[in-house]
Amino acid sequence: MRGRAAFSGLERPTWADYLLGLFFLLLAAFCLFWSAGRIGGQGVQAEIISDGRSLGFFPLDVTEEILVEQGGYSNTLCLGQGQVFVRSADCPDQYCVRHAPIRREGESIVCLPARLVIRIQGGEEAAWDAISK
Amino acid sequence: MLSASKKLARGGLLVALAAIFSYVEVLFPLPLGIPGLKLGLANVVIVFALYAYGWSTACWVSLCRILLVSLLFANLAMAMYSIAGALASLLLMELLRRSRLFSLWGVSMAGGVTHNLAQLLVAAAVAGTAAIWSYALVLIPAGMLTGLLIALIVGRARLALRPDASRGAAGSKKAPGKEASA
After folding, report:
1. Which of A5, A31, A35 sits opposite B174 (nearest CB)?
2. The sheet that has A116-121: what strands, in order across it?
3. What is the distance between the alpha carbons of residues B111 and B126, in angstroms, rounded to a whole number?
4. Which residues does A contribute to its contact with B (CB < 8 Å)?
């Protein structure tokens, strides 16, 4: 057989070789479970910061509407399906309402009149790589 | 006992061969969709040097190769990753080889995995993020595969280069010509 010929004359693997291979495979399996547990356990969250104070982290896997009132303005946030956007606001410029939904780690929506910041935590990394951060 | 000039010439030959292998890999990257994953053909030369000429030769050839290739085709940031990977894997390979428990297969496999993991460690230190650890999931099996492949090539090369190989010893006919020139 041609396939066998490639190995003829070579030294045979020892039991320690097999043990080492098994160890590496276990290590890879451990990495799999560890990273899967981390990704599944944490999930994507939105941190809502109003007037410099954090109102807390809100999970984005449940659909929810949150009304934030501050300084005479009110913003209605729409959370769910891994993303968040501002549905409506009574601020004069409406930049926060026109902003596209955010879903990636580090993205944010800012409403200056209402002193409101919405920031994503624990989402998938943005398109640029880790080095350029 | 080899004279110093003979050793120097042999080392230069090995560095040149390793550099060529690196160049071939730069020219034809594996389209696997995973950045940084490559066959590591140059490690064929390093593992060969480790077995045929010992630890210090392998170490010097490896360092010279990285410096040369980084200056020619990449940048010094890449040299940092490469040196971390190369030194860590060489150290472990030498330890395993000295233990006499492992064959070329195990030694080379350990070298491949360590090479990848050490580079990942440096990347984690540079980027300051633990998120890339899920990358280890891919890098460990990949290191095992490339390590075993390198063990196969080095094993055949050593068979072909045995002193009695020219007299038609088993296996010498199938040895690839590239390695025979090492």
Report:
1. A5
2. A53-59, A45-50, A116-121, A108-111
3. 23
4. 5-14, 16-17, 20-21, 24-25, 27-28, 31-32, 34-35, 38-39, 125, 130-131, 133
Q: Per-residue pLDDT for B105 more than 90?
A: yes
Residue with tokens 């590239």: B178
Q: What is the mean pLDDT of each run of 10 residues along chain A (133 residues)?
A: 72 91 91 67 78 85 86 88 89 90 87 90 59 50
Closest-CA residue of B relative to A35 is: B134
Of B96, B131, B170, the CB nearest to A9: B170
Q: Which long-range contacts (CB under 8 A, 24 or more apart) does B1-10 make?
A: B7/B57, B10/B53, B10/B57
Domain ranges of chain B: 11-28+39-180
Enumerate the CATH 2.60.320.10 domain ranges in chain A, comma separated. Answer: 43-121
Residues comprising chain A, all counted: 133
Say if the Cβ atoms of A14 and B106 lie within 8 Å. Answer: yes
Distance CA A62, CA A83 (A): 10
Does the predicted model carry a pTM greater than 0.80?
A: no
Residue of B nearest to A11 (CA): B103
Cβ pairs bridging A and B (under 8 Å): 81
The architecture of the domain spanning A43-121 is Sandwich (2.60)
